[in-house]
Amino acid sequence: MPILLAIETSCDETAAAVLRGFEGVLAHEIFSQAEIHSHFGGVVPEVASRNHLVSAPVIIDSAMEKAGLRIQDLDAIAATTGPGLASSLLVGAAAAKGLCIGAGKPFLAINHIEGHLLSPFFGHETIPPHTALVVSGGHTLLLDVEGFGRYRLLGRTLDDAAGEAFDKVAKLFGLGYPGGIEIDRMARSGNPARFEFPRGMIDSGDLDFSFSGLKTAVRTFLEKHGTPAVVDLPDICASFQAAVIDVLISKLFKAARQNSRRVISLSGGVSANSSLRSRSIERAAGEGLEIHFPPQGLLTDNALMIAFAAAHHLAASSSLSPLRSDSVKKMLSELKKHLFPIYDSLLTDFLETCFNQFAVA
Ligand code: ADP
Ligand code: MG
User: Fold this and answer.
1) Ligand 1: does its nearest atom lie under 6 Å from the Cβ of 178?
2) Which of 78, 194, 242, 338 could cysteine-pair with 310, CB 3.0–4.6 Å?
3) Residues 218-229 pLDDT 10s
4) How far is CA 49 from CA 92, 107, 177, 258, in A?
């Protein structure tokens, strides 16, 4: 069975995982920068990429050590190449490509959303036909999935992602970052029916979403009523959360119905939300649908879901050639073209370090 190393640096998590086949987890390492960015109330791209530069070699080393393998034992190396923060993605991709060139291994470029999308089926060799809701800090998408590699976009957010709405509203409430977990916790003891917040586009007739109106409604509410008293916060959080979840659930089940799918999945950081989970599980049971969530540890950004997607790509491709060293030159000139001089030298050094440190060819 093929063994893969995957690297994920699309946002503020530096992660590396080693996977054998579709289910053999040999390593699953994550360093979250959440604490660093919490001081700014959100992710600062430049801070993120600089921290990836420091953490990536440590995390990759640690993953390989946990797996008890050397780079030459791998069949291929994968990295998230988009979507995400450009300067952060470059770090993981540069590290993976440096390793591939050094060790003469094939490189697999993986789409971050596909990583989330397939994560509810982690371990499965076959991806069943289903309707998928990907809800994270950066994305809110509904997709019809025929099987691996056969995806059709049904709807998406026209403005903020659901997780982004959670984070922005949490900031308005004076809660910490990332805000989704904080709101979820507060909402558990709150009354979701106490305040009426708008369910954006719930009757739009299509499968798109909009969450920026909800965020504005919360801001207006706070301007009118002042900073919420501590006693009211659970009810406000529960009411806001219910507004987000009502729309997500309504459109997910509508999409499944329209496409005659009997299986649905939820993935991405927001799928960790306790109310979204319990309500969608209950509704799926009521409608006789099979429902899948990512296993614990694969909800928010991680490299194992990238490795799993890569394993499917590897299985689907008849042959992959090793990355050649002349791509280094191309990559360096790409880096120079696209990045500020400061990144340019930092990344060049970093790439060389990866290349020299792990080169075995
Ligand atoms: P991205 O891939 O876009 O970076 P992730 O998949 O890592 O996002 O998910 C992070 C998002 O998930 C954040 O917006 C965070 O607030 C949200 N989130 C995490 N846990 C919960 C929760 N329990 N309830 C609601 N949102 C959550
Ligand atoms: Mg993500």
Assistant:
1) yes
2) 78
3) 999 999 988 777
4) 10, 21, 19, 42
